[in-house]
């Protein structure tokens, strides 16, 4: 199984490669990718440097162009595909059917991966993408249980990549408009969820408050650690109870599932976090490299080293990790 | 004249409630009725044959019937349900994900897309047209201006693909494999006791300042405010929008339909349908603003 790591910047890309990534993925510095963050992502020159570095060290580079262009942005998104092709990336990660069509017709020789934002949760959906755009690989949304992943893998006409570690998006990716409902910007339209420009922090007599476009997302007691106000991880009131009604702040960690994922023939595991620092990438990539090497050398005797989990828990939201939807009980 | 359609029932209602609802709907001035369970595979008050029976009855009453497919397909059982719908051989399919597009195309069945399919540009519509697309719904987060560009783009391509706009009801905003209703009751999803039945218009999720943000409805999350584009109907008609979708609600739907029918005929309804039900209105998405906002 390949280790696919996030690269939000050139230093992060190099760090990922240095610490054992088989492939890295990056996006351009605009809304053509689903992780638009101020100060992150790549212009063409930095991307070219990153590609050179990765290729010199035997790693592949994927370019994510995985938001959904509207008519007034069509030329811009199309040119992002052209730029990725000109850079010589090893694959383009796409979600939009129109762009997949463009890429397949214009650059048939460049492999196309279906982004998690493409929201394919069944092998029939994968057959559609394979037949229509000849995709090579698909990234599965984080909503399937391990049993369901097994069902998809058994009949999949393409390589599969699954999420291994990082922030847990609990809605089917590519079909969540909660963010634009509150702030106008969503992953699909602008590559942003709960965008920073709409966030406001305020110390009040009731505690520290986080707001998203003026909507109260959470209120923290003194001493309680405060997380980024991603709206689905806020505390809300339902029938008089105040709780994390949608999801707790927690990260996905699937180290325990590695041998099973390997046995299912999953081609790659993906680390989430293009917004994270090179130091974070170094720790996560190193840990997963060790785990993957062990799983591949001794699949029957694979055991999770407790230090790996300690390292990963320290890098997780709220210090907590979960198997998420892979574990049916989570649902 | 613009068509009025009744979207699929997004909530979980008892069998009798569903039959009563459609018995009344048969008399309403709606042109198209979408039938089927689109949210959760555990919701089986009606079996496939019940839906097919309703489809026959409503067609006999002169309605265009469309069979809607589940939005989030997760299991082999979900696919079996989907195949059953796609093998009906008779009715138009509302494809709510690419699995349905694949199966409809395979069976040579025409289909339309629902608002959860990511149709953001004309190239996407061209791809789907090759698979048998006959009409499409605007994704709910898109604006009037984008819709106008899409309609103009289709005209330039010489493609006749009627557009429908979700114009009334709580907006379906997200789907998860987690059931938020079961979670609220501390029940596992697989043993949810069908608590959705107790909430025929969802569970209100409010901020700690009592702002209605969302409605939890099993696996789906809907808007806390009710989308209402009634006063935009004349503008839509001018733009060439083929129809508007009204999303079924438990109460007051007769009046909502009657008033939308008035407006599409150029008449002025006696009162705003919003007066019927307690929930804030919104129309932000239409103006390219945060969806929860209300203009004017």
Highlighted features:
heterodimer, A: 331 residues, alpha/beta, 8-stranded parallel beta barrel, 3-stranded antiparallel β-sheet, 11 helices, 16 strands, 34% helix, B: 296 residues, 12 strands, 31% helix, globular
- Could you say which overall geometry of chain B the principal axes of the C-alpha atoms support? globular
Spatial extent as radius of gyration of chain A: 20 Å
- Spatial gap, N to C terminus of chain A: 27 Å
* Quaternary status: heterodimer
Cα radius of gyration of chain B in angstroms = 18 Å
**Structural class label of chain B:** alpha/beta
Neighbour order of strands in the largest sheet of chain B:
1-2-3-4-5-6-7-11
Low-confidence stretches of chain A: none
In DSSP terms (H or I, runs of 4 or more residues), the helix count of chain A works out at 11
Residue runs with pLDDT of under 50 for 5 or more positions of chain B: none
Q: Termini distance of chain B? A: 27 Å
Number of strands of chain A: 16
Question: What's the tally of helices of chain B?
Answer: 9
What topology does this entry show?
The complex is a heterodimer of chains A (331) and B (296).
Chain A: E1 2-6, H1 10-18, E2 23-26, H2 44-56, E3 60-65, H3 74-87, E4 91-94, H4 97-106, E5 112-114, H5 123-133, E6 137-139, H6 146-155, E7 159-167, E8 171-176, H7 178-183, H8 187-190, E9 199-204, E10 207-212, E11 215-220, E12 236-238, E13 241-243, E14 251-253, H9 258-263, E15 268-271, H10 278-297, H11 306-314, E16 321-322
Parallel strand pairs in A: 1-2, 1-15, 2-3, 3-4, 4-5, 5-6, 6-7, 7-15, 14-16
Antiparallel strand pairs in A: 7-14, 9-10, 10-11, 12-13
Chain B: E1 3-6, H1 15-25, E2 32-35, H2 48-60, E3 64-68, H3 76-86, E4 92-95, H4 98-106, E5 111-113, H5 122-131, E6 133-137, H6 144-157, E7 163-176, H7 180-184, E8 203-206, E9 212-217, E10 220-228, H8 233-239, E11 243-246, H9 253-264, E12 281-282
Parallel strand pairs in B: 1-2, 1-11, 2-3, 3-4, 4-5, 5-6, 6-7, 7-11, 10-12
Antiparallel strand pairs in B: 7-10, 8-9, 9-10
